[in-house]
Amino acid sequence: MEGWRAAAACQEVDPDLFFPVGTGAPALAQEEEAKRVCLRCPVREPCLRSALAQPHPPSGVWGGLTEAQRWSLARLARRRADDRG
């Protein structure tokens, strides 16, 4: 396990919170609750970097972002890198 994980705020809550099932109101509420945990997390940035570094982005909320949000962030970063390249 990566060293930063031991200090993660998510260690204090049920892991299922970070993996909402579905796209309806209950799943969206669960997603928002998970993001609130991430907001108070001292290792949010390393968590997000770790998720973004994966060849296949992990599902769920990592570093305060959903899988779809991380995909968008990664696409934006690739575009910016292409523009500079």
Briefly say what this structure is:
With 85 residues, the protein is mainly alpha-helical. It has three helices and no strands.
Could you walk me through the main structural features you see in this protein, from its secondary elements to its overall organization?
It is found in: Cytoplasm. This is Transcriptional regulator WhiB. One of its GO terms (molecular function) is dinitrosyl-iron complex binding. With 85 residues, this protein is mainly α. The chain has one domain (3-84). Helices cover 51% and strands 0% of the residues. The chain contains 3 helices and no strands. It has helices at residues 25-39, 44-53, 67-84. The longest helix is centred in the last third of the chain and has 18 residues, at 67-84. It starts with 24 loop residues before the first helix and ends with a helix. The mean pLDDT is 91.
